[in-house]
């Protein structure tokens, strides 16, 4: 490679053969990059035949960015990390969906044979993908109902008995 000190530096767009950036070339590059990401990793979430808000919810869950009290406190947006449901331990995403007493009862009622992940061993992406493939929309419905119940307790003080929650799924 030869450098010419007399020539000015120029910007070159690697996404086009000409080296020139155009909005069209940028858009095409972005679509190609995005399609590769979605198809190889996250495509299964976006292709599910469920409501868009549930897809976003699953995406947040797999990225461990559900706004639990621990998540909010870690971002200086709260003070108390105690679970508002059982008042026994820190409320993180694992506790909301698999560790809380109410949660465990619901899982056992709806999916008696399903092996729940243990704390510290969970990989949201792999667990959800494997089990959604097998249990489908019912699993998504249970996760969503657990999230709604948590929010009803936290924001409205409404506590639903487990049999009512099972009826919502």
UniProtKB/TrEMBL annotation:
Pfam families: zf-RVT. InterPro entries: RVT-Znf. Residues 29-107 form the Reverse transcriptase zinc-binding domain. This is Ribonuclease H protein At1g65750 family. It comes from Cajanus cajan (Pigeon pea).
